[in-house]
Please model this.
Amino acid sequence: MTKKIKQGLKTQFMGKKLFIFKNIHSTNDIAKELASKGIRAGTVVISEQQSNGRGRLSRRWLSPAGGLWFSIILKPKIEPNELFKLTFLTAVVVVRTLRKKFKLNAQIKWPNDVLINGKKICGILSEVITSLSGLINFVIVGIGINANIDLKSFPKHLQFSVTSIKNELKKEIDREDFLCALLTELENYYYLLMHGSFDSILEEWKGLNCTLDAYVEVEGLDGVIKGKAIDVDQDGALMIKLENGSMKRVISGDVFLKRFYKTSLKTESEK
Ligand code: BTN
Model:
């Protein structure tokens, strides 16, 4: 696997160093350990399976063989409150790559999911390690993509809400080739972010997302909030217009889409 990825990667730094495992607890945890030992930015940790894959809100992330479970170590010059920018950027890159490679109608669901026809195909877990003074030492971007997975590998209660690339295409994909394409795109977008072009990434995120303009129910710390998702603010929080006309700002929670408004699934480059 290492050789094939190395041959396929034409990046400057992303994926130049790879750690590939058969089965570890969590690629994010191993990436954190490596980063704290000073490993170079762009290093990628991949595992065929994870015994303790982690999702958002301390949830378990099922990681059977056949998926693409990996974490990238980055050292961006951003403030901790800008971490969402990396998550948004990563979601844009995953969607672009799924569309470009396989013509799949992937969309982003706030804050960090990638869906196909409303079913989750990818989750992103960005974690930050800060110094005592509060500056970012490094960021771990963990990406879980249901690639060559049969839906029956998931528990019954999840089988209606998740999908995989294999399930959508009815055939297995070349995961190394997909990973190379994704890391290449990720490097390009990372450079864009580092050169101060988040606005253009955010515009693209908005064009690819299925949360804005939809009626949503958000289960969060404050209970359930119902309303229309209007926008994301400068901190990546979701702005929801409630039925009484007031606005509510949501920073974390599970979003349930009640109605889809978006019909155009084309990216700018596809139009
Ligand atoms: C979510 O949607 O809740 C985020 C899921 C993130 C899963 C990935 S798989 C690779 C990396 N290692 C982990 O333990 N989690 C992330």
Notes: The helical segments are 2-8, 27-36, 83-102, 165-169, 175-194, 198-208. Residues 26-28, 50, 53-56, 59, 61, 63, 69-71, 112-113, 123-125, 142-144 surround biotin (CB under 6 Å).
